[in-house]
## 1
Amino acid sequence: MTNSVEELEDAACIMIIGSNTTASHPIVAMHIFRAKEKGAKIIVIDPRKTHIASYADLYLAEKSGTDVAIINGLLHIIIKEGWYDKQFVEERTEGFVELKTLLEEYPPARVAEITGVPEAQLRQAAEMFAKTKQSSIVYCMGITQHTVGVDNVLSLANLSMATGHIGKWASGVNPLRGQNNVQGSTDMAAIPNVLPGYQSLADDAVVSKFEAAWGVTLPRKPGLTLMEIMGAIGTGGIKALYVMGENPAVSDPDIQHVKKALEALELLIVQDIFPTETVALAHVVLPAVSFAERDGTFVTTDRRVQRIRKAIEPIGDTRPGWQIICDVAHAMGAGGFDFASPSEIFAEIASLVPLYAGISYERIAENGIQWPCPTKDAPSTVFLHKDRFSKGLGTFKPVAYKAPAELPDEEYPFILITGRDGFHFHTGSMTRRSKSLTAQINRCYVQIHPLDAKKLKIKAGQMIRLRSRRGAIEVEARITPIVQSGSVFVPFHFAETAANVLTNPALDPVVKIPEYKICAVKLEKAT
Amino acid sequence: MINYHTVYTTCPYCGTGCGMLLEVMNGRLVGVLPCKTNSINQGKLCIKGWSAHEFVHSPERLKKPLLRKDGRLEEVEWDEALSFIASKLKAITQTHGPDSFAALSSAKCTNEENYLLQKFTRAVIGTNNIDHCARL
């Protein structure tokens, strides 16, 4: 997030796009509701009429996968009407002319046709967002899990820069991270193309710094992304895989294919706390402790480095994850892994990562510190991009609308959207072992619109077979107008009827995120 | 005698980062209380946060290292698991090169663990093949 979670309370207009906020981030939703109580206007853009959409001042029921068209449409209106922030555009951005040229192709009539959102609503949303002084965008995986995920994010950046709604208190672009430490694991460069702190593998000075600190020569060629790793098992040369705290046998798209890939490995090492579906395929399993049995740091969606603290002793013969990695390194005969505690590891991180240079366990204390924090006396950075962008001028990146990879046809006439249910978390390895949560819901379902249910003579509670080009699952029907006619929704937490049997492994070409939000399915009554 | 205390920590579920107090009684987690002074959640939690202690003592927790022998995963001591990994990894990377290894790190794990796994992958094995579930 460019801003802090609690700043949302002071926003005067919040545009929520591709986020089922009350279900997936209830405490963020709390701050949004407080803003609404203070008079803020709420705009929700989503193909599903989610819970928070029912509280919106304006709900735009877009067709799945048309976000770029909508945002371009809003920008078209904002610029035509002169509602953009001319001073911000002149002083802090570049590429506005190119953006304007592209936007000529997105008049309201055409955008309404692509997105299914009436012209009048597009106008209302454009005016509400642009003309309010402090507007913020909140988005989640409904924006990113598309073959045009990057284009979607760039469109939102264009919208915020054109309206000057960035770099201010309560005004910015705010992605909600779905997991406790998505931000931190990315900061730490558990990604193939950078070194910790987003430092470039192509920068000789950066690489030399790490080589000196670690006493090795580092590989310079960027590595493979998760989906590329799965594809490279077997013929592509990946023979050994070390999986720490993930469950790709349930979480990845087209999992029947993923399981075959994992089975083809010469060595699958899995470090986890539960016997997951991925553990079942492992050659060797390393039992780790849970969050309650170790010390460490997590980074929130608003860049706040916070502590977790050991509350109980390790259960059974388990070890903290950090210690296990050190043990493996020692077994390999490697140096550089002699740490007595997580705070010593953190000190090494701070010595190599400028964003974290001023952060220590002592400074984090009870309230956490928001990066960037370059020196020991630098304060938390509450919001980003004040006065200037980190790269200098903000560049508009005009993006054209592209259709999703797999749209419905005669054989597979429905769009399948996957996502979270409010009572569960990811592959369910934790929440499905919590009795309060399984008491609420413990089996998968499919949301079907009443018109489609009537047409197909489907009754609530009936078992439905959903079939895509990749596979089929049988789940219980829920009849609800939350989904649009022609679309269905399935939560992805239930391994025995995994939504990812159905999903399409088509990827965004830049960041290789799979298109979990759209694939084509058909519905059959299960006998 | 009852030994009860609370420990301040961060919720393990979504990325909001709510502050919570784990209630510990005689070495076992018995509950969760929301932290009022954390500026993110200000004394509130969602239902997942309120029940975040429940899975920790699940009887299904992995408690010993496991090694596949004759097709089945069997409990072994740490030393055996670690030396198996070291010898297999060395053999594979010596035969096929460092790029035959890949690591999937985790958005569920700490900064310290993510940092160490990427350091292991880059500095010990010698490849940049590391990613995690941020995209999922």
Note: The first helix of chain A runs from residue 21 to 24.
## 2
Amino acid sequence: MEPTNTEAPDYFHKVVDCQWACPAHTPVPEYIRLIAEGRYSDAYMINWKSNVFPGILGRTCDRPCEPACRRGRVEDQPVAICRLKRVAADNKDDIRGRLPRPARIKNGKRVVMVGCGPASLAVARDLAPFGYDITIIDQDPKPGGMIRSQIPRFRLPESIIDEEVGYITDLGMTLRQGERVDSLKALLDEGYDAVFVGSGAPRGRELSIPGRQEAAAHIHIGIDWLSSVSFGHTDKIGRRVIVLGGGNTAMDCCRTSRRLGGDDVKVIVRSGFEEMKASPWEKEDAMHEDIPILNYLVPKEFTHENGRLTGVTFEKVHAVYDAKGRRDLVPTGEPDQHFECDDVLVAVGQENAFPWIERDIGLEFDKWDMPVVNEITMGSTHPKVFFGGDSAFGPKNIIWAVAHAHQAAISIHKLLSGEDVDDRPPPGVTLASQKMGIHEWSYDNDISNDARRRVPLRDKAEALSNVKLEVELGFDVKLAFQEAQRCLNCDVQTVFSTPLCIECDACVDICPVDCITFTSDGEEAELRERLKVPARNLTQDLYVSTELPTGRVMVKDEDVCLHCGLCAERCPTGAWDMQKFLLSVTQVEDICASRKMAAE
Amino acid sequence: MTYITKPRLHHPLLAPNALGFTRRDYEGKVSTLCAGCGHDSISAAIIQAAYELDLPPHRLAKLSGIGCSSKTPDYFLGNSHGFNAVHGRMPSVLTGASLANRELIYLGVSGDGDSASIGLGQFAHSVRRGVNMTYIVENNGVYGLTKGQFSATSDPGSKSKRGVVNHDQAIDLVGLALQLGASFVARSFSGDKDQLTPLIKAAISHKGAAFIDVISPCVQFNNHVGSTKSFDYVREHNAALNRLDFIEPREEITVDYAPGEVEIVRQHDGSILKLRKLSAEYDPTDRISAMGHLQLHQARGEVVTGLLYVDPDAKDLHDHLGTVQKPLNQLGDAELIPGPAALAAINDSLR
């Protein structure tokens, strides 16, 4: 194999699985160590810079980091990264003094955002401190978008939304709440220098089956119903509720129903339980609240009497896979099943809707009627218009919206500075030895054997009594410390130096997870099988050295390395060193700071 | 040494052996030897061998004397029996233990100081008597614990770390073992576990006195230019006689080499030693020619490694003495106090 080029930032970045998996590339181990040290404000600020909404995401994130977490590959469960983030937010001091200040001098450039959800707010945060004149137009009475309208209060208290949205709006911007944008053309005609579309995926998908019209009074579209609950327009639901759909919105719908008078609430899904789109923990939370999830039932008809909904009829199906592994839901032939209910919530998906964008203003749409958006710059085919969040590539989640936003902000900044939008700034990277003494490292390299901690919950009866009462109590400081200690510090990299190695095998012998092999070089596929333990996880790279004096190479399988540093401790010559790799995605702030330094 | 204990977590693909143990279950405490010590590699090879042999840890006793090498039994087979003897006296303790309980597997671990200096006599007699044991000398040619003086196995002409030249003759433990009648003699190198591990497996399976001299560089005091026990020197001068594949009795033998390249030796317990010859004319079952070959190549400055000699049908001390088949602590009153009739019979035979 080619010797590994550790100079390329991606190599070590990929080893930090959580950070690599995070769309915003939050340096997770860095802030987890700070939480373990009790430095909650510092941990919060690292998050705030990367993901903008630590308190909100610490409760609601889809956590792509957790399935990626290396801990999940060496024992049962990943580190509870998401809920640790919440700990930083819950225990921080007043951090307002550490936030950027509103720009004293405006730069004269006007940027408008459509929708005031996480994407627009994050773009506004990145741009506002540097003098941009920002206007946000939003249909709802308060800023926050789906964070405020769709996420139930028992998962995310309003005070957290007000706080973190407030940090951004305090930077100075014009909010035009309760206003809908009907024409992009008209908006452009108002003379803005750039437009950011962060309007989300605001339309709940319809379920057009017989009875839909007749029983309409008791059939609700999930996200609209959640929004109506959020803004206090709806405060009750029938006793028997059926939620159709298997995504996270369905989980929010059923749990909200339980708090608004539904005591017989079911979720019914077409697919199998395992294939449901909802995150496993959200399904768990629903079932904990005595909500059964019934699967392989396809809704066929809403039954009704005298214009009043009486229930839903389902066809029983089972999954059949063809030769290519594609699934087909095929009727089992059993009699249809009827479930009685008083209300139905339809949560079968969300769609984008751009009736307000004229198709003749130079903004191209693809065959699915979605705008053509550049995945790197977030630019559309109209030079002044950028997209981000769900409006860019369809429904995703908050953390993706934030990641889009940082890139869109850079694009807007470059565009309005007269620079090439396609010329993207590289990430900021540092790699520094953590050696403090012969056996001392600046991080705690002793590996905790503890299993994942569960987040304490409020008593169920109390939690179900009030839709605004937060269910999760969050980790206390002690639990947080124990959970933080489970982090393997994957950002502290094992760095190998060929000229120093005397091939004594000390690292091979001490490695608790058999990562390291000294062997003759070969093609990757064959080499993977020849290692001390075969490297069968192809998503994880091999670290291959240049040729050693015996003609062999050092091969390290990154897959299950515990980053315990024992290889470096047992190395007599310092050929192994533990070096912290810190990567921060470049933001507008960093571009402005480096330019200021260059000017001085 | 390190301040932390080795993490318990292991590779999810680590396979258990027939007893359900992974290799990690055969480990001991974390080594307190210097980083990079060759002895740690030998410990790792012992762990690997015990794991591959499916040894029940409680069936093995590890004995050692004094020295860096004699510390190592603490770092492997943490669930086996152990005895740390007085300096150089491990062979006597091992002999006594073996006589008392012949059912255990005995692993003697010693160093060049413990076996070639203070314990040379003990070493010689345990080998001479054919005690059923595996005797490993972790040979670094230096007194590491006392900061680098020459040991009895330092080669004449080799230099200490401070540049002093050694004028004394070296004791060649392998030559001694051959001469004293060891029935399994091998030499290996801590930096070559592919060679060492099968040798340890074969030695443990061997009935009789099995001796392995393992050259084990002292990274701290004997790994410099001018040393003949350094990683570089051994790698440059290594003249391997053969490559051993150890095949357990229950395994099927598949010979995939051309005739003449492989020699098959079947040991007493049914295990097979499959030797891939690297030196064409070498016959590992001929003690006299083994001694000659060793002398010849050593004189040329080569470090001869591999399985030097094996007598697959060797007898051990118990055979020579005609001892009782049971361990002494399992003998009951009936066997220990045969009664007046037996005494009378003995007395009669002496009249």
Note: The mean pLDDT of chain B is 93.
